[in-house]
Every structure is written in C-alpha cells, then in structure tokens.
Amino acid sequence: MTGDFLIVSKLTYGPRTPMTIALPFTSVYLPGVELPWFRLPGYDNVDRYDIVVFNYPIDIAPISQKTNYIKRCVGIPHDTLEVRNKMLYVNHKLSKQSPTMQKNYLVQVRERVRLSPSKVKAAGGTLEGTQGANTYVINMTASVADKIRNWPEVNNVSLFILPDDFQEFSRRGFNFSNGFNNHDHIPPIVIPFKGEKVTLTSENWHLYKDIVSRYEHNNVQKNGDSFTINGEKTNTYTIKQNYYFMMGDNRDNSEDSRFWGFVPQNHIIGKAGIIYFSWDKERMLPRFGRILNFIK
Fold it and tell me: CA dihedral defined by 1, 12, 83, 77, rounded to 10 degrees?
C-alpha cells in the first residue's frame, strides 16, 4: 500500500557491487562514470509471483541510479505470457490469483438509486467513476466484489473489460506497448532469456527494441523489415541476459510491464520481505495492523 516502508533483501538474488560513484542513500552521483561491477551469489532465483524491487528500466540514468520500483514478477525467462479479457495466463494456464489483487468492476444498480461513495469505501472499494446510467466503475478485490454483489440496491457486478480494439496505448509513447491496443488484451509473448536467438521483424520490433538498443547497448538501424546492428546487416539477434515481466496487484492502476516492457536481470535489486512501518496519509495515522507484516 502507499505509505508502506519495506525491508528488501538484496541477499536473496545476490547483491550488486557498486555501479556508480555516488553518495550513499542519496540520488547524487558522479555523471559519466560507470564502474565495472558484478553480482555476488544469491541463495535463490527470481521466482514466478515473487514481489521484486528493481530499477525502473526506461529511466534515463545509470542502472543503480534509476527509480526503485516494486511489482510482482508474473513471468520469468522462457514463460509464455498472455492477457486475455483482463485475465493473465502463464504458459497457457490461468495465473495465480492473489486475494489482495484489485481490478475494476462494473456495478449496476437499480433505477433511480445512487451508490454511496462512502459505503463503497467502507466496504474496501474505490469508486472510480460512472459508465452510463446506473452503472459505476469500482476498483476492488474479488472478495469486496462478492460483498457488494449482495447489496439490495445492486443488480449486477462484473469485471470491467476494455474492448479489444480500444486504443489505450497508441498515445502513451512506450516502445513496448506500441504493438498492443490496451492492457486488458495482450497476445501470447515469450519472456526473453539469455542465449535466445530471435528473428527481428517490423511486427515484433516493439518487443525487442529496448532490449537490443537500450539494455544491451547496440547501435541499430531499421529500414522496413531490414536491420543493421553495429554495422552488420542482420535480422537475427542473440539475447545477452534474462528478462522478467512485472505486474502490479492493482491491475487497472499500475504502470508496469504491460506498458514499458521487460525488466532486465541487471536491474533486479532484491526481494521485498517485511513492512517495518506503514503510514496512512489520509488519516494521518500509522497503520499498526500492517507493521512487521510479511509481504506475500
């Protein structure tokens, strides 16, 4: 939740040696100087459904100075991932559904009935807006949706799924999502892995552009379906590191890999472990019930 303060284990995946010359615990660093670095051995790999802290990939800064992000890893190297009608499928199976996962729902009420925002909030949902007459958009978990479904003023509760052809991504400016229409519908894609040989085309370039150019530092020129990489004309490329697909548990209120793409292995910081403090900004009080909770 917003306001949580976390303990993150860098030892889990292996801590990185210093990558820049910087003042500790600040964003002040010596520009233009990047140190040779390596990752010390960890005791575990990034597993599917881990909650991972990483450097925001498309920031323009040295890796270790990029903004820290936290999301759930839903796709690991070699996985085939698909979003179909808002539902995530991994390797052609419905993914694990966390009980705290939130999505947008359409809530239809009886005619001439107004749904109370305070009642929705007290139930654990967030009223996002309306969708035509007598229909509200509410962001909530499945358990809250079941609760609201039983209210006498409610006729129906269903997932709010964007139409297949709704153009959400076209104006957002992300390379990765240029190939999709919206975050509720993403065709099957394979999470890139070290050593994978891919054939580059105009149709899949949006998937690999940042990998080849930004993260693996190649000079690429594209002319239609022809590619020149570091001066050599070729349509094949071998991936040099593992990549991961991250998504937020609040599926309709999370700018994540559906928008900006894969997270490179060298951007991984650690695994989120414990909430050591939590502050409720609205109430100006600590959330005592969250302190020292394990993150799942």
Answer: 160
Residue ranges of the domains in the chain?
4-86+188-194+243-294, 102-159, 195-240
Judge whether 193 and 77 are in contact, CB under 8 Å: yes
Res 169: pLDDT: 84
Question: What is the assigned CATH class of domain 102-159?
Answer: alpha beta
* DSSP-derived secondary structure letter, 132: S
Residue 196's φ and ψ, nearest 5 degrees, are -70, 130
Topology annotation, domain 4-86+188-194+243-294: Umud Fragment, subunit A (2.10.109)
pLDDT band at 171 (very low <50, low <70, confident <90, very high): low
Decide whether 4-86+188-194+243-294 matches 102-159 in CATH topology.
no
**What is the sign, positive or negative, of the torsion defined by CA atoms of 40, 44, 49, 51?**
negative
Copy the structure tokens of residue 128. Answer: 């996002």
Q: Kindly tell me if the per-residue pLDDT of 14 is higher than 90.
A: yes
